Amino acid sequence: MGPGRSAERAIAAAEAHGAHNYHPLPVVVASAEGAWMTDVAGRRYLDLLAGYSALNFGHRNRRLIEAAKAQLDRVTLTSRAFHHDRFGAFCSELAELCGMEMVLPMNTGAEAMETAVKTARKWGYRIKGVPDGRARIIAAANNFHGRTTTLISFSTDSEARADHGPFTPGFSIVPYGDLAAMAATLDAAPEETVAVLLEPIQGEAGVVVPPPGYLTGVRELTRERNVLFIADEIQSGLGRTGTTFACEHEGVVPDVYVLGKALGGGVVPVSAVVSSREVLGVHRPGEHGSTFGGNPLACAVALEVIAMVRTGEFQRHSATLGERLHRELGLLRGKGVQEVRGRGLWAGVDIDPSRGTGRQISERLMDRGVLVKDTHGATIRIAPPLVISEEDLAWGLDQLRTVLAE
Ligand SMILES: *Cc1c(COP(=O)(O)O)cnc(C)c1O
């Protein structure tokens, strides 16, 4: 079934006047609820992408929409030039959820990552005693931390970097999951290294889980060398993997969490850097900021997100349904699937090239009413809203089995 007339018009306008920095599937969404989206022609689709985990609590979650509506009727924006009555609660409750002391709110994930980089450098100069201009940060190959010029400066994705230079210096890249390489790179300049920056599971790389012991090893190496361990949990955090944070799978507590995506409940962009007083205490008035960061609407929605995460119910649901997801995907190995990775309700599925590219599989799933996103040619990602029912998940997997058998 092709897109209808009104969908065609919407797509044509987007093609003509929207920059082509994305290649969306030809579906035009008009409304959504829970794990389902409806297009302009009234066709329903099961959402197995969940806005790259920004929609962990489902589309238009009732609690989040009510929190947003109540706040819309009071005050939406003050700027940080003044206090507002949701800010203190947001900071203290998010810090508590993370087992940390301080919060620096921003809007998008990339902004929070930029903030983490600036914070680590400042901590290096003011606390660790790194000579001026020498701070170095270690990141992993195949990382994804966002799209700003500095963040792509340590990306290894040539598409993300192409024609965007010159780049920001001060970063070293190590292979992800290789503890010996991490130790060697740290020891090449331990006095100048201020941070190791990692996704505890690499999302955009195809849901890559590091070998057991890696995060624990990085934690030990960084602690011994007075280097900050910054965990980018923008996509992996807030329930996605069956725990509040993906670092918990190894019992690791980083020095800094970077959060985004689900923190805004799929309603507003909310991101944050969460850390100790020693680390975030380095910022002084005027040295960093954001007009919208920590605004009343963002804080009201995020406070409700924090309350929902605190119940543990989304983590439990993700862990339980995630077992079923990975069991059933595992059975597809050799039947159109080459490899499956992930944790909880999060999977990277490498498609056997003989069955088509990731894009072709995504298009065929769309025709059957299931929305997923391909990555790196041969991989599809499955990351449904954590509110998905077991029946809906089973139905979605049926569609995948059918498409792979065609
Ligand atoms: C999405 C993502 C980001 C960037 O977030 P934006 O809100 O798109 O800027 C950073 N890190 C990780 C791990 C992400 O998945």
TrEMBL record:
Keywords in alphabetical order: Aminotransferase, Pyridoxal phosphate, Transferase
SUPFAM superfamilies: PLP-dependent transferases
Pfam families found in the cross-reference section: Aminotran_3
GO molecular function per UniProt: ornithine aminotransferase activity
EC number: 2.6.1.13
Enzyme class, first EC level, given as a word: transferase
Pathway per the UniProt entry: Amino-acid biosynthesis; L-proline biosynthesis; L-glutamate 5-semialdehyde from L-ornithine: step 1/1
Positions of transmembrane segments: none
Entry cofactors: pyridoxal 5'-phosphate
Domain of life: Bacteria
Family (UniProt): Belongs to the class-III pyridoxal-phosphate-dependent aminotransferase family.
The protein's name: ornithine aminotransferase
